[in-house]
Amino acid sequence: QQPVQSPQAVILREGEDAVINCSSSKALYSVHWYRQKHGEAPVFLMILLKGGEQKGHEKISASFNEKKQQSSLYLTASQLSYSGTYFCGTERMDSNYQLIWGAGTKLIIKP
Amino acid sequence: EADIYQTPRYLVIGTGKKITLECSQTMGHDKMYWYQQDPGMELHLIHYSYGVNSTEKGDLSSESTVSRIRTEHFPLTLESARPSHTSQYLCASSDGTTYNEQFFGPGTRLTVL
After folding, report:
1. Any chain A CB within 8 A of the CB of B104?
2. What confidence tens digit (pLDDT) does each residue in A40-82 have?
3. Which fold has domain A4-110?
4. CA of B60: which chain A residue's CA is closest?
5. What is the count of structural domains for chain B?
6. Which residue from A minimizes the CA distance to B33?
7. Across residues B45-65, what is the average pLDDT?
8. In which domain, by residue range, is B92 found?
9. What is d(CA B94, CA B102) in angstroms, rounded to the nearest whole number?
10. Are the beta carbons of A97 and B31 separated by less than 8 Å?
11. Is any Cβ of chain B less than 8 angstroms from the Cβ of A12?
12. From CA B44, how far away is CA B57, in angstroms rounded?
């Protein structure tokens, strides 16, 4: 029931774009995206709800395909500060506020 | 400023010791969570609470216990620490509204020798 994230790791040059995917085999109420830097706590990026509502930072964009139970996080014109591990957390329709987390995607940005 | 705090930040103890990891939040959130995370790995939910006097076990089997006597405080206790408990423990809270965004504390890195 753990969501599957892909790719496992990405190496980019500063200014390049990346897409990180998260898919679930269960019907979802929401998908949460967080970024975690080494030794720090996860930081909120974006929440996407079933039905189309979303909340997040201006510079971050994401999508949620309800038919496929898949979400994608789009990182454009990447900056060095985007480096870290990106986690998706999925909230199932029957899970009542609990999140199940993917294994993470490690993003390395090189100058 | 609303925030979520965890103490201690780092703890090194011997096998068999009893420890309590503290977590407090000033946001008035009803929902609180404890996660266990090994370096670079996913977060595993070990306990959660929907409010005062409400506690539930998460998906990951854990030998720890929690209590929720006050809204702002959600301590986690290990009665007898073992090397297998070595990990990072993250506390989080959420307001349980439509978006249910989770706010994380800085974590406690526990090493059991």
Report:
1. yes
2. 999 999 999 988 888 887 778 999 999 999 999 999 999 999 9
3. Immunoglobulin-like (2.60.40)
4. A100
5. 1
6. A98
7. 90
8. 4-112
9. 5
10. yes
11. no
12. 11
